[in-house]
Amino acid sequence: MRTHLRIIARAGRGKAQTICVKVAYLVLKEKVREQSIVMCVFAAKVKKEMEELVTEFLCGNSQIGMLTFHG
């Protein structure tokens, strides 16, 4: 978890969840400030899904910046 991740997988294989777990790990275990993390995704649907996952992993409280490339 201390290195960069390269995630290659087909649709529906857990890429979004893997990224959200990495973010939660950085915040909870490595004490990275939430305000220093920005997550950028391609689609609004994925943005909503990842916001929900990160909030769940951070016990209902998240200040992670989340945006889409087009937003």
How would you briefly describe this protein structure?
39% of the residues lie in helices and 11% in strands. It has 71 residues and is an alpha+beta fold.
Strand and helix layout:
Blueprint: H1 15-28, E1 38-41, H2 44-57, E2 65-68
Parallel strand pairs: 1-2
Determine the structural class based on helices, strands and strand pairing: alpha+beta
What's the alpha carbon Rg, rounded to whole Å? Answer: 12 Å
Count every beta strand, where a strand is a DSSP E run of 2 or more residues. 2
Mean pLDDT: 87
Shape: globular
Proportion of residues in helical segments: 25-40%
Low-confidence blocks of residues: none
Report strand %. 5-15%
The CA-CA distance between the termini, in Å, is 29 Å
Element-level helix/strand string:
HEHE
Helix tally equals 2
What's the story with the biggest beta sheet? 2 strands, parallel
**Strand neighbour order, sheet with most strands:** 1-2
